[in-house]
Write a structure and sequence with these properties.
Immunoglobulin-like, Caspase-related_regulators, cysteine-type endopeptidase activity, 6-stranded mixed beta sheet, elongated, mainly beta
Length: 249
């Protein structure tokens, strides 16, 4: 072809306000011209003045980017689309000025109990430059088809029970999420469940804490912090002798 891209831009996952540069390089038979585009919520637009190989960005919102390269003979080619994922809060204890792009976990999966046959969804998230890749593990063994931020098992089996965690990695290193125990089991029939309630609750004398974290709203972007807060607060309450029941969404 008349134009060959020699360096594609790469996706990143960064905190809001973080400054970085997307790069694109190409070779051709004549001098080349560059033009960057961005897409947000299905609307694609040309970025005014973005006509150089490098595109400096200060992260404000999650968007997709691509670069068009053309030569003097009207040949044109587009780079890969890349995602700039922006986290609206910075992980606790992370000094942004010292961060060099290594993976940093900002959302850990949470412990769950699921009925047999029901769906299991675990979620994690990490910042990184370039954007981290993900690999989920159960009982220390990698799960072949679980390589995204969200682990999804449509119809669970008892054998899906175990300890789950995820590894986020990029060219700067790797970082692991917390390990969580997932229990897959049958539920008690209604009559037995009612009988169990009568036996347990009249004589219950322990301290019980109910934690509810909402991170999905109909008219507001999804939040991440409530999930982390529920997890951390449940650990604290358990250390204080509480029996903790955690609910999400």
């Amino acid at each position: 072809t008349a134009i060959v891209i020699t360096e594609q831009p790469v996706s990143v996952s960064v905190p809001v306000g973080y400054s970085f540069t997307l790069r694109c390089r190409a070779e051709g038979r004549t001098s080349l011209q560059y033009q960057w585009f961005c897409q947000h919520q299905s609307v694609c637009s040309q970025i005014p003045g973005a006509t150089k190989q490098d595109l400096p960005i200060t992260a404000q919102q999650t968007q997709l980017y691509t670069c068009r390269i053309n030569d003097l003979y009207k040949n044109a080619i587009f780079s890969d689309w890349v995602k700039v994922e922006v986290h609206q809060y910075v992980a606790r204890g992370l000094p942004p000025q010292l961060w060099r792009g290594e993976p940093v976990i900002v959302l850990n999966p949470t412990k769950q109990r699921v009925e047999v046959g029901k769906a299991l969804q675990l979620q994690c998230a990490a910042m990184g430059v370039p954007a981290p890749s993900y690999q989920w593990y159960r009982n220390g063994n990698p799960l072949e088809h679980q390589k995204k931020k969200k682990l999804w098992i449509t119809h669970t089996k008892v054998s899906d029970s175990g300890t789950y965690l995820c590894c986020a990695s990029n060219s700067h290193g790797e970082h692991w999420t917390n390990a969580v125990d997932i229990q897959i089991g049958e539920t008690l029939p209604p009559a037995e469940h009612l009988q169990l309630c009568h036996l347990v609750f009249p004589v219950a004398t322990g301290k019980i804490a109910l934690l509810v974290g909402n991170n999905r709203y109909q008219h507001h972007p999804n939040l991440m912090a409530p999930v982390t807060d529920v997890f951390e607060l449940s650990l604290l309450l358990e250390q204080l002798g509480f029996q903790v029941v955690s609910l999400l969404d």
